[in-house]
Amino acid sequence: MRVDWWFSETWRWRQMVVQESDEFCSLYEWKAEKGIVNVKTFDVVVADRQEVVRIGWTSFLRGTPFHVVGWAASGAALLDFVCKYQPQVVLMDAVLDDGDSLRLVEKIHAQREEAHVIILSASDNPTYVARAHAWGASDFLSKSISRKQLLSAVTEVVLGLGPTSLGLMRDISRELSRKRDHDKSGGLALTPRESQVLRHLGYGLNNREIGRSLEISVETVKEHVQNLLRKLHLTDRTQAAVWAVKKGIV
Question: pTM for this structure?
Answer without folding.
Answer: 0.80
